[in-house]
Amino acid sequence: MHITALAGGVGGARFVRGLRHHLDITGLAGSTVTVVANTGDDITLFGLRVCPDVDTLLYTLGGGVHEGQGWGRAEESHRVQGELAAYGAVPQWFGLGDLDIGTHVVRSQWLGQGASLSEVTARLAARWGLPDKHIRLLPMTDVPVETHVVVDDPEGDGQRAIHFQEWWVRHQAAIPAHRFVVAGLDRATAAPGVLDAIRRADVVLLPPSNPVVSIGIILGVPGVRDALRGTAAPVVGVSPLISGRPVRGHADACLAAIGVEVTAQAVGELYEDFLDGWLVDPVDASTTLRRARVEVFDGPLLMSDVAATARIAAHALDLAAAVPA
Ligand code: GDP
Ligand code: CA
């Protein structure tokens, strides 16, 4: 079986890890999972190219993630960041651990030598053993794309756009967002293999990733949404919201910015033009979509550990097998 998943960082990575576990324990170990990662979060800091969602996927699927945090490396230290602070180097609001910086240095070196982000990501994934686990990690595009957030200018009457990371990490999404602007997206093309992975998959899954700044950005890459509408594979999503709240992060602030209600129903509707199945938590059992079959998970839709996540992934695959594509 060939499964393709569109993923942001923590939600996407945890879901794919659970999916992989489910496949491995049910005799489907040979199945491949292609992960199309959001790169709108990417940022250049201290001359280094940082790809937060790709890195969360690498570390989580490769077994090196800081479990409590959900992102970054386990057993991390911050000596380099301390040195940068001593020099007065900014910004200091984005945490960069020493081991993590290793990833950013080698990525920046390879990009500087002319490798594409796809090639670089494949080399990083090899170090983390992803090919051996039958996981193919693709950035959504090789073109640098950066999500910005339009907010009121604190120093004037107008508005200004700040990098998504500045809004999310520095301001904890507490400054009201007027809209998101994705620099570079209009001239972006899907990375090699992305559109084929959607068109030729047996199943396409949308993990419970942020519908606006993770999945929403991937859907904005020219060709991706059309590929999802046109694929012969069933497309099944898992709600990132339970009872009108994101399980973690600030998806509520993101949805408010685009004028969409913070409900499993409204998020399902965002995808309804290509969605075949939508898995929701029991508290959201009243969800109905005109063009997709809604199913209620038989327990909390919480990825509390790998086993619980594997059960969610199994239900998503069952739903995919039951709906007409
Ligand atoms: P990020 O890039 O690190 O923010 O991660 P993603 O975009 O992949 O995922 C963030 C989304 O995952 C948020 O909207 C959360 O509500 C959702 N999420 C996180 N953990 C869970 C969980 O255990 N269950 C469900 N249903 N959603 C979750
Ligand atoms: Ca992210």
Protein model, in words:
There is one protein chain. With 325 residues, this protein is an alpha/beta fold. The protein has one domain (2-143, 187-240, 262-322): Rossmann fold (3-Layer(aba) Sandwich). It is 36% helix and 18% strand. The chain is built from 12 helices and 14 strands. The strands form 4 sheets. A 7-stranded parallel beta sheet has the order 5-2-1-9-10-13-14. Strand 1 (2-7), helix 1 and strand 2 (32-37) form a beta-alpha-beta unit. Helix 4 packs across helix 5. The longest helix has 17 residues, at 306-322. The mean pLDDT is 97. It binds guanosine-5'-diphosphate (GDP) and calcium ion. The site of guanosine-5'-diphosphate has 23 residues, from helix 1 and helix 2. Residues 7-12, 53, 56, 208-210, 214, 239-240, 242, 246-249, 251, 301-303 line the site of guanosine-5'-diphosphate (GDP).
